From TrEMBL:
<protein>
    <recommendedName>
        <fullName>NPH3 domain-containing protein</fullName>
    </recommendedName>
</protein>
<dbReference type="InterPro" id="IPR027356">
    <property type="entry name" value="NPH3_dom"/>
</dbReference>
<dbReference type="InterPro" id="IPR043454">
    <property type="entry name" value="NPH3/RPT2-like"/>
</dbReference>
<dbReference type="GO" id="GO:0016567">
    <property type="term" value="P:protein ubiquitination"/>
</dbReference>
<comment type="similarity">
    <text>Belongs to the NPH3 family.</text>
</comment>
<dbReference type="Pfam" id="PF03000">
    <property type="entry name" value="NPH3"/>
</dbReference>
<keyword id="KW-0175">Coiled coil</keyword>
<keyword id="KW-0833">Ubl conjugation pathway</keyword>
<feature type="domain" description="NPH3">
    <location>
        <begin position="48"/>
        <end position="340"/>
    </location>
</feature>
<feature type="coiled-coil region">
    <location>
        <begin position="380"/>
        <end position="414"/>
    </location>
</feature>
Amino acid sequence: MTEEFVQKNLEARTEAYLKDTLASGLLKLDHNFPMKTMPNIEPETPSDWWGKSLSVLNLEFFQRVLTAVKSKGLKQDMISKILINYTHNSLQGLVIRDPHIVRGSLLDMELQKKQRVIVEAMVSLLPTQSRRSSVPMAFLSSLLKTAIASSASTSCRSDLERRIGLQLDQAILEDILIPANSYGNNHGTMYDTESILRIFSIFLNLDDDDDEDNRMRDESEMAYDFDSPGSPKQSSILKVSKLLDTYLAEIALDTNLLPSKFIALAELLPDHARIISDGLYRSVDIFLKVHPNIKDSERYRLCKTIDCQKLSQEACSHAAQNERLPVQMAVQVLYFEQIRLRNAMNGGHNQIFFGTINSQFPQRSSSGAGSGAISPRDNYASVRRENRELKLEVARMRMRLTDLEKDHVSMKQELVRSHPANKIFKSFTKKLSKQLNSLFRINNLKPIGSKPNAESRFLFQRRRRHSIS
């Protein structure tokens, strides 16, 4: 059996087999071992993973088991996987409602109570909060949606909102489209905008806290953090701003959404969070189209959130012809377009506005390699053509203002005419004129074709001669 008799005997073959089996089995064991030697290899969860067996436990015993293994130093990603698996199996038959169940009935209230107990228990067992948490964003979003639908406690919802706000730059649109609770929804809105407002506020407050922590850095690091578009901090802010613009465009289609809630979300981000405002302009335009009866003050406040200096040329052209926008904004858009054309004619040396946007978006600037490919004559001709178009737009705006003034005057006249006292006076004068006409007809009644008498002709001639003389 040993190598003393012949090579590759049973002992050597058994040892080789055990080495191969052990090496392949180590990768599929419990994933608590830190894989420092293989950082790019993610362990796969086998079908007979021990964490799946915990889903058969009741909620109280599951909490005790998971608390015990957490105290033994179980990794946070393993805890997240166990919680996701248990929550999926526990809520699978509760979240999908039976259409025959009447809302507000005893059975419906019992289902909500079960959901609420499970969600609050899962939130209490989540790993510690951090900006790079091991809990997936989709799982946190589903927990928050279930917590709102089941009327969970305020502390539970606040915990989930803070966790989502910590890693909001990893979210997508489906993660923040949270349906509103139908029980406490008096306006009949589709989405819960108040929770989203708190989530974005948490992210912005964390950003401010980071600014306080980074005050002790040197100026070069501060310039990288704030000014560089490739820095992690700036890239996360840009992701969140795009996410908010997409969310605003989605909720703008809700006809029951109050303008005050939409305006609060539109005014939330600071000015430096958006490099270009086309997404915000699109969402505002959709909201104004869906809500045509919005007040003028709310319309002006909503359009005030759009920075006209950060609109692209296509957005400026659309805004100049958009009748849903206030006249002040259209004039402001035309003004900034005129300044941009003037800078283009001057060779791009006067950077009055756009700041660093021209360097980040070469297609919107007039200097650099983009302008070098076009001859000065062609560039001047295109600028003159755009200038003529802008003049036409200004003329159209003036015509619109004139029409509005005429409509205003006509409306005032109609209001004056429709006044009750004016109606009485008008009827009185009409009756008086009829009586006077009847009197004149009785005194001066003559047959048709008869000639005027000499006296009347004489009086007329005398009056005429007197008037001439």
